[in-house]
């Protein structure tokens, strides 16, 4: 049975793929992205999965993800602030072990006032490694 399965030619698109860790890039909102599963790396059509970090003492620019939901798990660092809402009126603290969901189109800013880099495992329903982020400079001065 095994030899018959080995002889069958499965198209590469229908096999599992391993993605090795790679160097990251600074996204236009200011966080560091290290893509894992994406359209570019494996031909994903609906999912992006990767690592995201926010260096100590840094913050993202005010932005939203047009049409894309984001889910995050904070894996390392100290607590950071997540500001969200139409006028960034809500501020909550996220700590290692916490999950965060950001609905599509919701303006947000992440602020890392700690002395440690914050690390996240992130997923979104957009397979592009460089998703369509919409910067919102008119909101940047709201968050100190």
From TrEMBL:
InterPro entries given in the database record: Cupin_2 (IPR013096), RmlC-like_jellyroll (IPR014710), RmlC_Cupin_sf (IPR011051), UCP037087 (IPR017102)
Domain Cupin type-2: 53-121
Annotated protein name in UniProt: Cupin domain-containing protein
Source species: Rhizobium lentis
